[in-house]
C-alpha cells in the first residue's frame, strides 16, 4: 500500500462518503478508487463480449423453450410439475 499526502476537496469527499457509506477519509478514498477500478474492468469485459461474434438465430430451438423471455407462466408450470 502506498502512503501519500494530498489536498482533497472537502465537499467532494463528504459527497463521496455519503454515497459510499464510508466512515473515514481513508476508507472513502480507497472505496472511491476501488469503485473506479471496478467500473473500468466492467467496461473492459463488456467490450470483450461486444466484440465476440454471437449467433442467436437458432437459440429458441437449442434451448427448447420457444424463445423469448416470457416468464409469466413459469410459477404456474412449476406448481403443475410438482403436483404431477
Low-confidence stretches: none
Share in helix: 55-70%
What is the average of the pLDDT values? Answer: 85
The biggest sheet, with number of strands, parallel, antiparallel or mixed sense and barrel status, is: none
Q: Count up the helices.
A: 4
Element-level helix/strand string: HHHH
- Give the percentage of residues in beta strands: under 5%
Q: Distance between termini?
A: 60 Å
What structural class should be given to the helix and strand makeup? mainly alpha
For the secondary structure, the number of strands is 0
Shape: elongated
In total, the number of domains comes to 1
* Rg calculated over all Cα atoms: 24 Å
Protein name: DUF2191 domain-containing protein
Organism: Kribbella pittospori
What characteristics describe this protein?
84 residues, mainly alpha, 4 helices, 0% strand, elongated
Topology:
Layout: H1 10-20, H2 25-51, H3 59-63, H4 74-83
Helix pairs in contact: 1-2
Structural overview:
This is DUF2191 domain-containing protein. The chain has helices at residues 10-20, 25-51, 59-63, 74-83. The mean pLDDT is 85. By secondary structure, the chain is mainly α. α1 (10-20) packs across α2. Helix content is 63%, strand content 0%. The protein has four helices and no strands.
